[in-house]
Structures are given as structure tokens and as C-alpha cells.
Amino acid sequence: MKTVQSFKRSRFRRQPTEARDGASLGLVASCAIAAVLALFAFYLSLVASSAPLTVNERLQVQSAIKVLEVKGFSREAFLLRHTVTYRSTDNWLNSLTKQDNAYAATNFPFQMITLYSDFYNKAIDDTERAMILLHEAQHLQGKDEAGAYGFVWQHREQLGWNQLNYGATPSYVTIAEQTRDYAPELFTCPNRAWKDCTESIAATPSQ
Questions:
Q1: How confident is the model at residue 207 (pLDDT cuts 50, 70, 90)?
Q2: What is the CA 174 to chain-centroid distance, rounded?
Q3: Coil vs helix vs strand at 157
Q4: Residue 107 forms beta bridges with which residues?
Q5: End-to-end Cα spacing for the chain
Q6: Nearest Cα to 132, choosing from 91, 112, 102?
Q7: In 54-198, where does DSSP find H-type helix?
Q8: DSSP state of 86
Q9: 186 CB contacts (<8 Å, ≥6 apart)?
Q10: Given this model, what pLDDT does residue 66 score?
Q11: Do residues 113 and 105 lie in contact, with contact meaning Cβ atoms separated by under 8 Å?
Q12: Does the pLDDT at position 101 exceed 60?
């Protein structure tokens, strides 16, 4: 049975442990705040080193997002409409790794999308621009290029961006070639047209 004196001694012995726990929590909180501030400063540097979209460019983006929404890509439409900062020129980070013939670039996890001239000029309509944004929306969710190309190619019929309607456009030809490079596993079905496993058309003897 504890006396008043023994209780006081036990309480006194616990104090150093409680103090250390409090100090540890304070250190963790300080590190977390510093990390958040560093990420925010990095994000601001990306914004400051690039230009925003013009009014006309924003309207085209909104039209493309509307296509995605109508076609059933509500998750992607929400991300693109409510979580993204759009830019019209490269930030300093993109300038270090810029690729030729690109439609867009996404900085994940900063939810920033840079749209290049091909997005407006090479893509022939809102559906093709929706296809590009659908690709970038996969990056917003953390997918790599293989995952983004594969997702778009597997869902192009749902979007209405298919061989029948767009097969001859520069964008369709370009994306088809790039998809074969990044997701070759989708083109391993000899009984499908062009060996494309996502195609509903059966292969002919000449193919």
C-alpha cells in the first residue's frame, strides 16, 4: 500500500519522462511545420517562375473538363477543376527537364499543370483536349507515364476518342505511338486489330 510520501516520490520520478515526451512532441511538430513551409515555398517558386493562362485558354480548359464530366470521368473532372493551378509557360523545374512535342506537364504533388501550344493547336477539338487532361489527371493521382498512357488508351472509347473518329489526327497518331512505347503490354493480342488488346475489332489475315 502506497503512503503519501511514496506517491509523491513516484510522481516525481515520472516527471522527467513526461518532460522528454513533451520535448519530443514539440520537436516533431516543429519539423512538420518546417516541412510544410518548405513545400509551400517550393510551390510559390513554381508559380512565380511561370505565367498564368489567358481568359481564352481558361475557357478551352473548362470546355475540355466538361467533356470529361459528361463522359463519366467525374473523379478526374473534379481534380482538374478544383485542385489544379494551370500555367501557360514552364516553371524553373520544368525548364530543367522539358520534352519536345509535349502537350502538357504536371508537377506532382503540387497539382500544377503547364499547358503548351500543342494543347490548343495540335489537338483538333475539345475531345482531344479532354484526352490530354485525362492523361494529366492520372499524374495528379500519382501515376507514372506508363500508367497514364495505359489508362487513357484503355478508356478512349468511353471518351469517344477512337480510331473511327480520330484515327487520322496528328494527336491520335502521336499518342498511339507513345502508348506503344510506354505500355507495350496493351499491344500483345494477335487476334485483335493492330494487336491492340483494347480493340473490339478482330484481326484480319493481312494483319
A1: low
A2: 20
A3: helix
A4: 112
A5: 90
A6: 102
A7: 55-70, 74-82, 92-96, 117-121, 126-140, 145-154, 156-159, 163-166, 170-182
A8: E
A9: 150, 153, 154, 179, 180, 196, 197, 198
A10: 98
A11: yes
A12: yes
Kindly report, residue by residue over 162-192, the tens digit of the pLDDT. 999 999 999 999 999 999 999 999 999 999 9
Separation of alpha carbons 72 and 51, rounded Å: 31
Rounded to whole angstroms, how far apart are CA atoms 24 and 33? Answer: 14
What residues are paired with 106 via a beta bridge? 113
Question: Contact 83/111 with Cβ under 8 angstroms?
Answer: yes
One-letter amino acid of 154: Q
Burial 51-83 (b: 16+ CB within 10 A, else e): eebeeeeeebbeebbebbbebebeebbebbeee
Query: What length is written for the chain?
Result: 207
- Cα–Cα distance, 147 to 145 (Å, whole number): 5
Three-state DSSP state, 115: strand
Distance CA(55)–CA(129), nearest Å, equals: 16
Averaged over 82-98, what is the pLDDT?
A: 93
Residue 63 grid cell: 470546355
Do 114 and 90 meet the contact criterion of CB atoms below 8 Å apart?
Answer: yes
Q: Which triple of cell numbers denotes residue 194?
A: 493492330
Helices 55-70 and 126-140, axial angle in degrees (round to 10): 80
Tell me the C-alpha to C-alpha distance, in Å, between residue 146 and each of 114, 123, 155: 19, 21, 14
- Helix (H) or strand (E) segment spanning residue 169: none
